[in-house]
Amino acid sequence: MPHRNLVSWTAMVSGYMRNGAPELGLGMFVSMVRSGLCPNEFPLASSPGACQSMAHAKLGHSLHCLAAKVGLDGNPYVGCSLLMSKGNCHGYLCAYGFFSNLSVKNVVTWNEMIAGYGLHCYSEDVVRLFHSLLCFGERPDEFTYSAVLSAFQQAHDTSDCSENPDEFILASILNACANSALIRQCRCIHSVVFRTEHSRHFCVASALVDASAKCGDIYAAESAFTAVSSQANNAIMYNTMLTAYANHGLIEEALSLYQEMAKLQLAPTPATFVAVISACNHLGLVEQGKLLFSSMLFEEGMNPRRANYACLIDHLAWKEHILRMMPSSDGAYVSLSNVYAEDGEWQSAEDTRRRMVEYQVQKVQGYSSVEI
């Protein structure tokens, strides 16, 4: 290639790095700099991560100096790569000094630091870093939770940590287990919760019930719920367990738990009715679902939320009751068609739209208004 620009050099550097040839990638990067080109954040973010041992420590330091010279040492992605280099060459306790001085930290740099500490079994520091991340207002992502869980697994448990994770950390990790259906990790955190007596906190207890249920272990969810509800009754806990029963198709248990709430005089919330009406939907108990919705309106005096209306529409659509109730309403047909579409029943969705044409039901055009 007679004329090489920054893009072509960057493509070669990145290509070598991604295909398991870091030595060639570093060599290409050095050649690029010697040719007189000033690197941008892309090759600089790729190169330091290739410095994997003390043999590359000097080169890693040179890359850090170059990044500072061109004003990119504050870039979070370049910083993350430099952090990885320092951690691999000098250890993550040394890398923490560099991490502390980073002018811009994002979730990527936090994840790298947490993962590095976890890899070297610094479980206590993992907990502190995760807590600091939350205090700084950074939002953890799935890689953060994975790094924290891996750290606990690497250390087998948290028994050798002088500082136990608090209720906020445990609730966050349990939510990650629930979203990823990590049953093994969920059981590990379950044992930590009861050993540290954090089960008394409703945010942890409800997260534990939710995570166990979403991981498929409804018996563990029941066990956690029973342990907490025996100490104090709380509508949030009952709502979580109601939702778990409904999602597992345990309709009789859900309705029984709802009746138990009434006996204990626990005030239901809109979330309570979403769970119970969903349970009725599974059994096709259309009339009972309608009665529950009426109860929410007239007996409890609640203003239904969007989730309540969506649940009712889904419930009535189970046997197309919504069309019999509102045969000339364009909203009824559109809502039913959308329910079918979300479930992947495209033929039913198309049939519903076709019936609108047959019955000459016109869809009212929506509009927006702006005050001038």
TrEMBL record:
InterPro entries: E_motif, PPR_At4g14850-like_plant, PPR_rpt, TPR-like_helical_dom_sf
Recorded GO MF terms: RNA binding
Residue spans of the PPR repeats: 5-39, 106-140, 234-268
Protein source organism: Eleusine coracana subsp. coracana
GO BP, one annotated term: RNA modification
Keyword Ion transport: no
Transit peptide keyword on record: yes
Pfam family, any one: PPR
Name of the featured protein: Pentatricopeptide repeat-containing protein
Classification lineage: Eukaryota, Viridiplantae, Streptophyta, Embryophyta, Tracheophyta
Keywords linked to the UniProt accession: Repeat, Transit peptide
